Amino acid sequence: MSGRYLVRRLLQVVPTVTGILVVTFLITRVTAGDPAVTFAGEGADQTQIDAARSYLGLNRPLIQQFLSYAGRTLHGDLGVSYVQRQPVTTLIGARLGPTVLLTGTALVVSTTVGLLLGVLTARRPGGVVGAGLNTVALIGYSLPSFWIAQIAVLELALRVHLLPAVGIDDIGAHYSGWAAVLDTGRHLILPALVLSLSEVALLMRVTRSALIVESGQDYVRAARAKGLSEEEALSRHALANAMLPVMTIIGSRIGFLFSGAVLVESVFAWPGLGMLLTDAAQAGDQPVILGMVLLIASAVVVTNLATDLLYGWVDPRIGHG
Question: What are the distances in angstroms from CA 90 to CA 74, 113, 283?
Fold first, then answer.
């Protein structure tokens, strides 16, 4: 990967981040109501609302408000929550751990299972097993995650009592050590599986399609002619060249797992960023909404940048383009 390619990709991040700042700022100003009313609190009179508007700088021109917001953001200051009266970075930091645990687990599960099923179905594309798994994957990808989450809670948690329905641990249990780890693991299973389901389906289908294309190439035929089995030809030769589209899916979906976690966390009462964003949206807490949207958008930008840089490392031809 050449240094010029690296610099060019890094420079492309600047207008992207600028666009994210502009769009998120304008959307919240248009859709989230009057921040001064939220800041002043319920029962505030017009004098208090006007004082809040002056304190927040909302009586200044919109461009000045944006420049002030962008300057603070670039210095790591996302403002103070109008409702909880705490720094937004503090609120996000307190909720980031559970969300990273949930999305990280979902990413590992979806990547591992998706790749394995993709290789399995690519072995015999026209077989009964391959066709059946492909159909199941299509159904799983088409079903909305929040609906699957509600079904999982009703059937597996409340009806069968197989797994906990909500939360990250048993309230009042006060576990410690490995007991606490196992308790959190039990609560993690359902939301992680629900969040990873559509990702498994998508990754399986992409892996399957890429392997089918690669399996018809001359170098794979040569591998078979040398005596390699179908499994060895796919895993040792075709899979390496099929990884570029697979990497695209994995890289692009990491950021979207954060946004998907918003709905899943709400259903399972998982104390992560999704619950924080839901509460902020209901209360019209603009600084928290802005901070969360910026975090999710930045995650998408960073993961896509990392994927592009990884392309240049896997295939040097891309890095020299």
Answer: 16, 35, 18
Domain count for the chain: 2
Under a CB-based contact definition with an 8 Å cutoff, are residues 194 and 152 in contact?
Answer: yes
Residues 242/213, Cβ–Cβ less than 8 Å: yes
Burial 118-141 (b: 16+ CB within 10 A, else e): bbbbbbeeeeeebeebbeebeebb
102 in the same domain as 70: no
Residue 36 — very low, low, confident or very high, per pLDDT cuts 50/70/90? confident
Three-class HEC string of 125-159:
CCCHHHHHHHHHHHHHHHCCHHHHHHHHHHHHHHH
The pTM of the full predicted model, rounded to 2 decimals, is 0.77
35 and 286 Cβ atoms separated by less than 8 Å: yes
Residues 293 and 223 in one domain: yes
Domain boundary among 13, 48, 74: 74
| Parent domain of 31 | 3-74
Structure tokens at 51: 């004082």
The answer to whether residues 41 and 98 belong to one domain is no
pLDDT in tens, 268-308: 888 888 888 888 888 778 888 888 888 888 887 887 777 77
Number of other residues whose CB lies within 10 A of the CB of residue 2: 12
How many helices and strands in the chain, by DSSP H and E?
14, 0
Judge if 206 and 280 occupy the same domain: yes
CA dist., res. 12 & res. 115, Å (int): 31
Tell me what pLDDT residue 149 has.
Answer: 82
Same domain, 100 and 68: no
Question: Which of 144, 163, 165 is closest to 153 using CA atoms?
Answer: 165
